[in-house]
Amino acid sequence: MKQAKFYLVEQAEKQGELSAVEALACDLAANAWRIGKRVLIACETEQQAFNLDEALWARDPEQFVPHNLSGEITQYATPIEISWRGKRNAQRRDILINLQQDVPDFVNSFNQAIDFVPSLENEKAQARERYKYYRQMGFEMITEKA
User: Fold this and answer.
1) Where in the sequence is the signal peptide annotated (predicted)?
2) What radius of gyration do the chain's Cα atoms show?
């Protein structure tokens, strides 16, 4: 069964250049890669994708995470791809980490989706709509505190 996991993020402050949600997305992608999963991080904007790319490159060498931005030419497909609206490679991925305001239309090509409930009220309302959409699409719903 397809599964959507929502993380409740209670802090809104930035961690360096990233929001708490973006920093958690990077950590979750790294953890998924370490257990052999291929991940797509779907960002809202190209700038957000660049920020995540920079944050992943800035990690300590022992925390290195092989990744690339959608559209970058690489000899081999990296396990983590960072995309944004209108830009995505066609490679098969195991997990979708959604940072977009809506659920991407390609969500059905994933068996597992990760999404977030931020602490700001207007963003919580958007998260509730995404939650309803995943449930309507037949995903098993899981909620966890970050």
Assistant:
1) none
2) 14
Sign of torsion, CA 118 123 124 126? negative
| DSSP track, 51-98 | HHHHHHHTS-GGG---EEETT---SS--SEEEEETTB------SEEEE
Angle subtended at Cα 66 by Cα 57 and Cα 38, rounded to the nearest 5 degrees: 135
19-78: per-residue pLDDT in tens?
999 999 999 999 999 999 999 999 999 999 999 999 999 888 888 888 989 877 666 778
Pairwise CA distance, residues 27 & 16, whole Å: 14
Class for the domain spanning 3-145 = alpha beta
Please tell me the pTM assigned to this model. Answer: 0.93
- Of the candidates 25, 37, 145, 44, the one whose C-alpha atom is nearest the C-alpha of residue 102 is 44
Nearest to 16 by CA among 46, 51, 44, 40: 51
Decide: residue 82, CB within 10 A, 0-12 exposed, 13-18 middle, 19+ buried: buried
Q: How far apart are CA 141 and CA 87, in angstroms?
A: 27
